[in-house]
Amino acid sequence: MGGKEKNTAFKFDVVDDVLVVDLKGPNITDPNLIDTLDKQLAALPAQTDRKAFVIDLEHIDAMATRFINCLLVMLKSVREEGGNLKFCNLQPDVERIFKLMRLHQVFDIYHSRDEAIASF
Q1: Over the stretch 46-60, which tens digit does the pLDDT of each residue have?
Q2: CATH assignment of 5-118?
């Protein structure tokens, strides 16, 4: 993996040995899109030797709770491999959902991509 890569549901880049996943938006509510993202994101940890991941939600205005479950599964698999997964740039509605579901107690969340990357 090197440089920027494009994908149907997201793009990723490596910055300071951190794999940054930039999800395309604005909504992750379609079941087919969630299935695609679930498969692609779940495969990322096995496809790289990286242990540090950031998911940038800057372009996401809404997401289904089913997709949040995908993120929880990814967090678990990354941590089982000795890595960590962090989130950044939550939009107001997504941030509200995360707080209501108390996900800020589960996920490491940062205001900016730079802050998330620097936290490793």
Answers
A1: 888 899 999 999 999
A2: 3.30.750.24
